[in-house]
Structures are given as structure tokens and as C-alpha cells.
Design a protein that fits this description.
heterodimer, A: alpha/beta, 2 domains, 6-stranded mixed beta sheet, B: alpha/beta, Four Helix Bundle (Hemerythrin (Met), subunit A), Rossmann fold, 3 domains, 5-stranded antiparallel beta sheet, SRP_receptor_beta_su (chain A), transmembrane helix (chain A), P-loop_NTPase (chain A), Signal recognition particle receptor subunit beta (chain A), receptor (chain A)
């Protein structure tokens, strides 16, 4: 009863044509948009941290690398199902055991590392996150250098790499103020007996990506084209747009990607060492450091 | 016994694990792949009801798992399939509750990449020992003759007292489901016991226990095992009890109480056996154990049974069985956690029920509306129910089979339950996004099919042979049409194609193919591309034999004349077992590299049964389903141009079998064959 009367009083006041009500109404009208804008603006600001993306086929060691970079220690990992972000800091030459000579000042040595699942069904996470973060500073494509020595593993890695590079290329061609995105192909697991050295990984991947590019160009159109309308209007351009690297070139080389601002580096390394020896990831750190300061 | 136990995050990081024997990480990876990512066989990763998850078998291991969905955790127990670990479920539930309890603050941090969970080892060990002994009981019974006689007298006495098993299940179930009074009492008592035991036990432990052991004499092994749990549990209890008071209750309170009691009951009997079998015996543990029991029941020391009964009588009778104090401690701890959770839950619900005041209810409604607009709303089952129903209707209107639609909605529900909506996102939009993701995941093939590359790899090299593709399907779905479309596509890529008329049944089937082949060869000659030929043996012959002959003909003869063999088969009703069974022979004799099934987009709910029945026919000579146990290699969905947006058949068929859609037929012409663009399909379905 009391509550109802209070409510009625309040309602009566709210509908009365008094000055106070008008003032309050005007204040609310003016302030609410401002507050909303402030809230939204603050959220958009926070995404300006340089981001590095970990990508690659399943079982390459992305999540292991992720834990090593974020924690400094290697965790046991299993197949990822969801992407994961964390803030990392470049190891300074003094604090970390790996004698990394940092050219980067500590204040901007922080970056966000985004780990994505590599399972075939979950790659949309990776491919969508390729286009979204504006502050994407680089892409780390982790491959298992031992798996690349088998035909199946090589094909899987090359197909994925092809798709990733194509997305980057399209992003560069279509985007207005796009920044070039460097790609590090991290030839992981160099400690495994059957692994290939980084140079061989590079040449094999180039050869395989070339094959993938060829069969993709000859393959069937996919259902998105022609049925959605709009895409079919410029067939010639579309074909060229879906061709990775220099159009018409027989052989594919990572160097062809430089035309689109994609600098591909293939660097070997290993997360696990023999015995107590730690893995070798210094060169990857170097690469991140170099691209962070860019 | 248990081989391994791991706690994994959904992002793949192992937070804590314990391996008793080396277990390849492949085992758990394949669990994640098959169950969580590919969701094979309709297995769902249940949210809160972890124990109901069906076990997953891989190699010689059986895996049981449960999830802590809101925190993105997966708990996996691995054991040999030969063993029957009925307690694994209760262990999982208990571990989930304890782990989440203990590490809730760290886990809540979304960016957690590792937590220092070493202290969890003790808790886990204690837990395992208590539950494990119980579980092992069954297997040990047959092999260990010594054990039973010893055990029986105690058990009989105990059972006479009705202390061991009966009280636990009854009380537990009653407490859980019905009025809370008995449970409360019991739990309260348990808590009290816990505190008292904590005070009393530590002092006497080491010394008293020693004397206790000799008394056991023949049963020493058993005793030792018991002792183990006691020591550990005490420590764990201490650690946890400190945590208990501070940390808020974690999720999953509901199920766990019910489960735990069960686990406790089984554990009592099994304990003894486990000790003998597993041989996880620690001398120190024994001492501790007895110390605990010693103070409570002095007379019972020489006889285990007496101890047990006494203890039971003292307590609620539930956890004591033979576990003695130590066990009790652990139980108390668990029960205390659970009770605290349930009470907190109750306290949560109570105020809302009581406070029916006008203002508060109105404000809560308003804030609910506001949150719906602004986001940040924690989704409950009630929130999700209606929009999910709408979503399901929407899917059904898109011609998705009810079974598939329901499963998708369930997966969205488990995905979103207890999640917070993002800012400025309504529930509908959140569900929409989650459903898009689920559809994308279900439609995306695990490995993309690059037919041209596969063919090139097969027909080149030292072991070159023709690449064989066969097409199956129900009558009238467009098998021959799609086969000629594929032939056209292959011809464009300069392959030499042999079309095989293995439909020796329907009149006109061979002639139909002949027309197609004539048209195709006309086209290919004009365009100067590949060549095509028809292989036919007329009507009435055995299709499998025709197919085999065709493959031989293509691969040998005047030196491997053909690159690709396309085999057309007779259409058959998927529920006609007589016709369907001949597919098995066909698959084995022709042994195609790829078997594609044609399904028409027009068909509705029946698509699920069609896909299943066809897939299950393709078993190899060892009785294994082809292609890693899924049967076929892909679907061709024909007549997509006739259904507009209603492309739900894609989802239904993929959902039923896990076989990807590789081609879509989108028109009447030879060129109207398309690969599947997942984004396009999802867009059509969600529009």
C-alpha cells in the first residue's frame, strides 16, 4: 500500500508541468547520449594494442608456443576448440634467459597474442580474426616441420597457408588504408628426427602452394558465386582476385607476396629441447620484436 | 585402475594432469576432435550433467569426461577399456566441484593461460583413493580369493547394521530431490564432523596408527590402502576448508550432490580391492588411517569391520564404511562444498521468491529489459527457451530435419547457458551468432576435398591407377545427371573419363547414360579437352561385377587408357534392405576411391534416414566402415536451384552422418555444379 502511494506520488510529480520536471527531462535527454557515447568510445579505444595471430594446421604447436610466449613456460596442450588471447611482453635482454637483444623500448614491448584453433572445422575463427583486428601486426603460421615431410601434412599446411595468404592479399587489395601484414612461417619441432630444415620447409611449401593454387583455379566455382548475385559481374577480376601471388605465374614463391605487402619469412625453431635444454625460439622473438617496432 | 586424469581448457591448455601410466596425448586429442569438435554420433558435450556423458572409446582406452562449461574446462578420465571403472563418473564430478572451488578466482580470469595447480595433487590423490577402492571391488572379486572371505564378514555385519550402502543412496537421493531437511541435517552433521575431526585427528595420527596396523594382520594390504586416503584427505581437507570459507560457490552445484553420495557408496566396497590390485600402498598412509580410527573406536581396531560399523554409527553412516576417519574427512569436505553450494543456491532463490514487492519486481524486470538491450545479461535456461524455440521453428522452415534442428538448438543452449551477453547485444542476436557458428562448424569439412589434386596424385607416379568415383542415392534424385556434370568438370581438366553403367536394373538407364556420354564427347571434342567413353554390359548383370570389370578395363587393357572411372548405380530406396545390402558387395568389389551420395534438396526429414542408411552399407571386408568409419566421402545435394533459401537438407544430412557436402547441383546444364561455400549456406539458413 505504501509503495503504491509512493509510486502514485512520484508519477503525479513526473507528469506535472513544473519547472523541476522539465529541467530533469532536459538533463536526461542531453546526458544519456553523451554517456552512451563515452562508454562506447572507451571500448573501441582498448583494441589498439598490437596483435599477433597464431595460425596453422592442427598439431603444429600453436598453443604450446602461446603458453611459452605468455608464461615463459611450456604447458602440455591438446587440440584447441576456441581462440584464446593473452598479453605478452617481449623478453628483455637482462631479465630473460634467452639473450634477446631488444631494440624495443620496454614501454611498447607489450602485444596481444591470439591463439586460434587449427582443426579443419574451426578455421573460421582464424580466418575471421584475420580481417577484424585493425592493429594486426603480424601473423605467425606455425607448421610442424616433421609433418611437412609427409605428403598429407604438406598438403594440409599448404592449403591452409594458401587460404590465409589469399585472405591477406584480398584484404590488401580491397582495403583502403591497409597496412602490410608480415607472415612468419614458424617451422616448429626442429628437434624431431624427421623434421625438415627451414629452407626445405620453405621450398616444399612454395611448391605445394603453387599446386594448390593451380587446382583451386581449375576447380569448381563455389556456391557463393553466381547464386548470391553481384559477384558474377566481373568474372575476369574475380579469377585474378582469387589467384594468389603474381597472376599467371607458373611457380609460386613467397617473394610474389611482397607485391601485396605480405612479407613471408620462414624461420625454424623448436619449443622442446633435448633433455633440460630449452627450446629455440629466439629467432621468433626477434621477428616479433622487429615487427612490433615497425 | 585409472591411467590418466586431465583438466583441459577449451583453448587446449592442460591446467592440471596426473598420469599413472604413459598415455599418448592422441587419445585425448581424438576425444576432443570426435566428441567436441565434430560431435560425432550425436554425442553432446553436456553442460552441467557431466556424469551422463557416454564414455568414449579409443584404442584400448575408455575415456569419460565432464565439462565445466562456464569456465571452459574439460575433465577427462582415461582408463583401460578392460576395466570397469564405475566410479569414474563420480570422480569426475567430485574433481570438477573441488577444482572449480579451489581455483575459481584464477579460472574466472578470461586470459588465464596457466594456473599453479600443483596443490591439487593432494586433493586428487585423496579423492582417487577413496573412490578408487570402491570401484576396483568388482574386478578384484573374481581373482582374489583371499580378500572375499576376509571382507565378507565385515560387510555382512555392516550390512546388517545397514550402515554402508543403504544410508548413502537413500539419503542422498532423498535429500537431493525432495525436501532438503534430511540432507541439511546430514550435511550439517558432516560439517561438524569435519571440524571436529580436523581438530582431533592430526595429533594422534602417526603414532596411533602404527599400533593399529599390526592388528589388521592378514588384511594388512587392505588396511594400508585405507590409510593412504586418510592422510591425503586430511591435508586436502585442510587446504580446501580454508578455501571453502572464502570462495564463492562455483557452478554445478546441482548435480554433484546427487552424484557424490553415489560415488561414496560404491567406493566403500571397492576400496579394499583396489588396494590389493593396484598395489598403491603407502606405509605412512596406513599409520594415519588407523590413528583416525583408533581414537574413535578403540575396541574395533583389531577388526576392521568393527571399526567400520562403529564409525558409521558415530557419523551418518554414509562415508565411514571402511574408509574410517580419513575417508570421512574427504567426504565431509566434499559434502561441505556441495552443501555450501546448495545452500547458497537456495539463499539465492529464496529472496527472489520472497521479495514479491512491487518495486523490486518492477525494477528487476526493467533492468532485465535494459540488460536485454544493453547486454551483460547472464543467460538462464528460461531466457533461452523461447528464442530457441523460435530459432528451431525458423530452422524447420528452412527444411532442416527436426532431429538436426533440435540438436543444433541444444548445442546452442549448452553453449550459451550461464554466459553473459556482450554489450549492446540482445539475446536474439546472441543466439543468432551462436547458431551461425554451430552451422558453420557442422557444415565445414574437417579436411577440404580437392578432387583434382587427389586424382592427379592417383594417376601419376609409379603406382598409378585409375581414380574411381561412384555415385549412389535414392531413386530419382539425379544420380546420372550429377555424374555427367562431374564428368563434364573432369573433361574440362583434360582427364580421360570412363562412365560405367552399373545400373543394370531400371529400363532405359543405360540409354540415358549413352545420351549423356554422346553429348559430353561431342562437347569435349569441340573444346579439344578430355575424352569420355561408356562402359556397359546391358541389363540384368550383377552391378558389382560390372563395376569391377570396368575398373580392370580402365586400368589395364592397352596401357591404362583412362584416368577416372565414374560408376553410376541403380537408385534404391534406403529402407529396402534387400537392395541396400547389395551396396556392400558393390563397395568391396569396385573399391571406389570416392563414394558420393546424391541427395535432393527437396527432401525433408527423410534426408536423415537416407544418409544414415546409405552410409552404413559401405563397410570394408574387415567390417569397418569406409573412410574412417563414416562410410561415404561426400554428399552431392542436387536441385538446390529449386528450393531457394530452404537448403536445410545440407544440414540434416551432414548432421546425421558427419559426411561433408562436396558439390551442389544448381541447374540443368552440365556446368551447373558448384562446390559448397559454407558462408553462403549459413547465410541462407539464417536469413
Amino acid at each position: 500500500m505504501e509503495q503504491q502511494s509512493v509510486l502514485r506520488d512520484w508519477a503525479t510529480w513526473a507528469f506535472s508541468p513544473s519547472l523541476s520536471v522539465i529541467v530533469v527531462t532536459v538533463l536526461i535527454t542531453l546526458l544519456v547520449p553523451l554517456i552512451l557515447h563515452y562508454l562506447l568510445h572507451r571500448q573501441s579505444d582498448s583494441t589498439d594494442v598490437p596483435t599477433f595471430l597464431l595460425i596453422g594446421p592442427s598439431g603444429g604447436g600453436k598453443t604450446s608456443l602461446f603458453t611459452l610466449f605468455t608464461n615463459g613456460t611450456l604447458s602440455t596442450t591438446h587440440t584447441s576448440q576456441l581462440p584464446h588471447t593473452a598479453t605478452c611482453r617481449l623478453p628483455s635482454s637482462t631479465s630473460d634467459s634467452s639473450d634477446f637483444e631488444s631494440e624495443v623500448s620496454p614501454r611498447n614491448s607489450e602485444f596481444v597474442l591470439l591463439d586460434t584453433p587449427g582443426h579443419g572445422k574451426l578455421r573460421h575463427h582464424a580466418l575471421t580474426s584475420l580481417t577484424s583486428p585493425s592493429a594486426l601486426k603480424g601473423l605467425i603460421f606455425v607448421v610442424d616441420s616433421a609433418a611437412v615431410s609427409s605428403a598429407q601434412g604438406l598438403t594440409e599446411a599448404a592449403e591452409f597457408l594458401h587460404d590465409v595468404l589469399l585472405v591477406l592479399q584480398k584484404r590488401y587489395v580491397r582495403g583502403k588504408r591497409t597496412v602490410a601484414v608480415p607472415v612468419l612461417v614458424a617451422a616448429n619441432k626442429q628437434d624431431v628426427f624427421t623434421s625438415l630444415p627451414a629452407g626445405l620447409v620453405k621450398s616444399r611449401l612454395e611448391e605445394e602452394v603453387g599446386k594448390v593454387r593451380l587446382t583451386k583455379s581449375k576447380g569448381l566455382l563455389d556456391s557463393g558465386i553466381g547464386m548470391q548475385g553481384g559477384a558474377g559481374e566481373d568474372d575476369g577480376d574475380e579469377e585474378e582476385g582469387n589467384w594468389l601471388g603474381e597472376f599467371g605465374a607458373k611457380e609460386f614463391a613467397f617473394a610474389q607476396m611482397e607485391e601485396y605487402g605480405i612479407d613471408v619469412a620462414v624461420v625454424g625453431g623448436r619449443l622442446k629441447g633435448e633433455g633440460d635444454e630449452a627450446g629455440q625460439v629466439k629467432e621468433w622473438w626477434d621477428w616479433i620484436g622487429g615487427n612490433l617496432s615497425r | 585402475m585409472l591411467d590418466a586424469f586431465e583438466i583441459i581448457t577449451t583453448s587446449g591448455i592442460v591446467l592440471w594432469r596426473k598420469h599413472y601410466t604413459p598415455v599418448s596425448s592422441n587419445v585425448i586429442n581424438s576425444l576432443i576432435n570426435d566428441v567436441f569438435i565434430e560431435e560425432r554420433g550425436g554425442q553432446k558435450a553436456g553442460g552441467q550433467d557431466g556424469g551422463t556423458n557416454p564414455p568414449y572409446k579409443k584404442d584400448k582406452y575408455t575415456l569419460r569426461w565432464t565439462t565445466g562449461k562456464d569456465l571452459g574446462l574439460i575433465f577427462v578420465a582415461v582408463y583401460q577399456s578392460l576395466l570397469h571403472l564405475s566410479w569414474a563418473d563420480s570422480l569426475l564430478t567430485a574433481v570438477r566441484a573441488l577444482f572449480i572451488k579451489q581455483f575459481a578466482p584464477e579460472l574466472k580470469n578470461p586470459n588465464v593461460t596457466a594456473i599453479d595447480a600443483r596443490q591439487f595433487n593432494q586433493t586428487f590423490d585423496a579423492l582417487v583413493r577413496r573412490l578408487d577402492t570402491g570401484s576396483t571391488r568388482r574386478p578384484s572379486e573374481p581373482d582374489s580369493d583371499v580378500g572375499p572371505p576376509e571382507l565378507t564378514p565385515p560387510s555382512s555385519t555392516v550390512s546388517a547394521g545397514e550402515d554402508e550402502p543403504p544410508p548413502l543412496p537413500v539419503s542422498a537421493s532423498a535429500t537431493f530431490k525432495k525436501p532438503a531437511i534430511p540432507e541439511r541435517q546430514k550435511e550439517d552433521v558432516a560439517v561438524i564432523d569435519d571440524t571436529t575431526s580436523a581438530d582431533a585427528t592430526p595429533v594422534p595420527t602417526p603414532d596411533t596408527s602404527r599400533p593399529g596396523t599390526p592388528a589388521g594382520q592378514p588384511v594388512s594390504g587392505v588396511l594400508v590402502a585405507k590409510g593412504g586416503p586418510g592422510k591425503f584427505s586430511r591435508r586436502a581437507r585442510k587446504a580446501n576448508s580454508s578455501m571453502l570459507s572464502n570462495s564463492a560457490p562455483a557452478s554445478s552445484g546441482d548435480e554433484s550432490p546427487a552424484r557424490k553420495p553415489k560415488g561414496g557408496k560404491t567406493s566403500v566396497k571397492q576400496k579394499r580391492r583396489w588396494d590389493t590390485d593396484g598395489g598403491i600402498v603407502e606405509g605412512d598412509d596406513e599409520v594415519l588411517d588407523y590413528s583416525a580410527s583408533g581414537p574413535t573406536s578403540a575396541p574395533g581396531e583389531d577388526d576392521r569391520d568393527f571399526d567400520l560399523t562403529d564409525v558409521n554409527a558415530d557419523e551418518m553412516g554414509s562415508r565411514t564404511r571402511k574408509g574410517e576417519f580419513v575417508l570421512k574427512d574427504l567426504d565431509d569436505e566434499i559434502n561441505a562444498i556441495l552443501s555450501s553450494q546448495s545452500t547458497s543456491r537456495a539463499s539465492k532463490t529464496d529472496p527472489s521468491a520472497e521479495s514479491s514487492g512491487l518495486l523490486s519486481s518492477a525494477s528487476s524486470k526493467i533492468s532485465g529489459l535494459f540488460r536485454n538491450v544493453v547486454g551483460g545479461k547472464t543467460l538462464s535456461k528460461a531466457d533461452l527457451q523461447q528464442p530457441l524455440q523460435q530459432m528451431q521453428t525458423h530452422l524447420l522452415e528452412k527444411n532442416v530435419a527436426r532431429e538436426a534442428a533440435e540438436r543444433l538448438c541444444t548445442s546452442v543452449e549448452t553453449d550459451l547457458l550461464d554466459q553473459k551477453t556482450a554489450s549492446f547485444t540482445s539475446i536474439d542476436k546472441t543466439i543468432h551468432e551462436s547458431m551461425s557458428k554451430a552451422l558453420t562448424r557442422i557444415l565445414t569439412p574437417t579436411s577440404s576435398l580437392d578432387l583434382l589434386r587427389n586424382i592427379n596424385n592417383t594417376i601419376t607416379g609409379p603406382t598409378s591407377r585409375p581414380y574411381v568415383i561412384s555415385i549412389v542415392g535414392v531413386n530419382g534424385v539425379g544420380k546420372s545427371t550429377n555424374l555427367s556434370k562431374i564428368a563434364y568438370f573432369l573433361l574440362q581438366n583434360n582427364f580421360r573419363v570412363l562412365v560405367v553403367a552399373a545400373d543394370t536394373f531400371r529400363s532405359g538407364a543405360v540409354e540415358q547414360l549413352r545420351v549423356h556420354v554422346r553429348n559430353l564427347s561431342e562437347l569435349s571434342q569441340r573444346e579439344q579437352v578430355g575424352t569420355v567413353e561408356l562402359f556397359e554390359k546391358g541389363y540384368g548383370k550383377d552391378a558389382a561385377t560390372v563395376a569391377r570389370d570396368a575398373v580392370t578395363y580402365a586400368g589395364t587393357g592397352e596401357g591404362k587408357r583412362f584416368d577416372v572411372v565414374l560408376i553410376d548405380t541403380a537408385g534404391r530406396r534406403h529402407n529396402d534392405t534387400r537392395l541396400m545390402s547389395s551396396l556392400t558387395k558393390f563397395g568391396q568389389l569396385a573399391n571406389p576411391d570416392k563414394i558420393f551420395m546424391v541427395g535432393e534438396a527437396l527432401v525433408g526429414t527423410d534426408s536423415v534416414a537416407q544418409a544414415r542408411n546409405f552410409a552404413k552399407e559401405f563397410v570394408d571386408t574387415k567390417g569397418q566402415l569406409r573412410n574412417n568409419g563414416v562410410g561415404m566421402d561426400g554428399f552431392i545435394i542436387s536441385k538446390c536451384d529449386t528450393v531457394g533459401d530452404m537448403v536445410g537438407t545440407l544440414v540434416s544430412m551432414v548432421h546425421a552422418t558427419g559426411i561433408p557436402v562436396v558439390f551442389l547441383g544448381v541447374g540443368q546444364h552440365y556446368g551447373d555444379l558448384r562446390g559448397l561455400n559454407v558462408g553462403w549456406a549459413v547465410d541462407k539458413l539464417m536469413r
